[in-house]
Write a structure and sequence with these properties.
Dna Ligase, domain 1, 4-stranded parallel beta sheet, single chain, 26% strand, Rossmann fold, 9-stranded antiparallel beta sheet, alpha+beta, 384 residues, D-amino Acid Aminotransferase, Chain A, domain 1, 13 helices
Length: 384
């Protein structure tokens, strides 16, 4: 493989905050950047050379993007496979359509992981309301239901067996409501587990086969949306090594070219279970910009351009807390107060329409320990 050197042009399918931050890293390395996104005012537009306004299923626009690029990557996995294949005719697409085709469908993703022996929590593939009713009983009455395709940050998801009101209305009514809310389409039902915490591991692999896994991150979710994350994860050293080994093995089996975030559960009895895969930069690794020698965004550029991968050693523990649109509902946040907390940095994505649950930015901080870094960002957010 030959490296794609600085001065070349990188195309990114997706112009959200992940595309924006990847583009900023690419520009620091001397690359030109083009993005494709359906939103004419997407966050990446303000930091790239050109922006193609088109939908994820617009194969012609994806091909047009690729014609002017030396390599194409992505920041969102919901791009149509036909668009990836159209782009691939003109430039390497990393990660590629074969891998994306498996990851885009949660049923196929879990079946792939199971076939290759990776640890999974109990689940059931759901293709009808009857399947969901049977799964709810088999999985112990409490489960999370997720659309097989699309949906993240709590969207296209439902819960069964958790609420007191649902219990009084009857399980059948709750199952019916969940099936209707998910559009009566294929989905996955996952057993509710007794968890110690949730973690993720980001792994990078270049076309030449060089692979590096970042230290694991500990993640805290609220209403199925990541609230805060910290690197390194607060788990035993042996478990962290096991988590990184799992992530590397998945990347190697896929012959990954780019980044792959592997989300995992840590159960109270000390087991690791793979939850989901994301073949792109990930919210839980924003802290890598401050915690690690190489950020996930620079590593993404290095990986897809077949440059030597950067050192992922921890320089200092760091944490981020997400700023959702909810923070703006009572007026403009007092960022001056948040920035008065020593060591806290503000990162805004230039999204101009705050909405409840929409990721608008994040705060980051370093600390002598992971716990101290988390305390700083939470204190800063409380001052907004």
């Amino acid at each position: 493989m030959s490296a794609i050197l600085p001065g070349s042009t990188i195309g990114i399918l997706g112009g959200g905050q992940l595309g924006r931050m990847m583009a900023m890293a690419a520009r620091s390395l001397g690359y030109r950047v083009q993005v494709l996104d359906p939103d004419p005012s997407c966050p990446a537009r303000f930091v790239v050379d050109s922006c193609f306004e088109a939908g994820w299923d617009d194969a012609r626009a994806a091909a047009d993007l690729a014609r002017g690029c030396d390599v194409v990557t992505l920041e969102i996995e919901q791009v149509a496979i036909a668009s990836l294949e159209a782009a691939q005719k003109y430039a390497p697409v990393r990660p590629g359509p074969k891998m994306l085709g498996i990851i885009q469908d949660r049923i196929e993703q879990k079946e792939w992981l199971g076939r290759h022996g990776f640890p999974l929590g109990p689940y059931a593939a759901i293709r009808s309301e009857e399947d969901l009713r049977a799964a709810a009983e088999t999985l112990g009455g409490r489960c999370f239901v997720k659309s097989a395709r699309g949906g993240y940050d709590g969207r296209s998801q439902a819960k069964i067996g958790f609420s007191a009101s649902a219990a009084s209305a009857g399980v059948d009514a709750e199952i019916r409501e969940a099936w209707l809310s998910l559009g009566q389409r294929d989905c996955v039902a996952e057993q509710a587990l007794d968890l110690e915490q949730e973690i993720s591991v980001m792994v990078a692999r270049s076309p030449s086969g060089e692979t590096k896994a970042f230290p694991a991150a500990s993640n805290h979710h609220e209403e199925q949306i990541l609230a805060w994350s910290v690197i390194p994860a607060t788990i035993p050293v042996a478990l962290e090594a096991e988590a990184r080994a799992i992530a590397v093995k998945i990347a190697e089996l896929f012959q990954l070219e780019g980044l792959l975030a592997v989300e995992m559960f840590v159960t109270r009895d000390g087991r690791l279970l793979v939850n989901e895969l994301a073949p792109r930069p990930h919210n839980s690794y924003h802290a890598s910009e401050r915690a690690c020698d190489t950020s996930q965004f620079e590593q993404a550029v290095r990986a897809v351009c077949d440059l030597p991968l950067g050192d992922v050693s921890i320089v200092q523990p760091a944490a981020i807390v997400n700023l959702l649109g909810d923070v703006w509902l009572d007026g403009e946040p007092r960022f001056d107060r948040a920035l008065a907390v020593p060591g806290v940095h503000l990162h805004l994505y230039e999204k101009h329409v705050p909405r409840k649950g929409r990721k608008m930015g994040h705060l980051s901080a370093v600390g002598k320990t992971p716990e101290e870094a988390v305390a700083k960002v939470l204190e800063a957010k409380s001052r907004l």
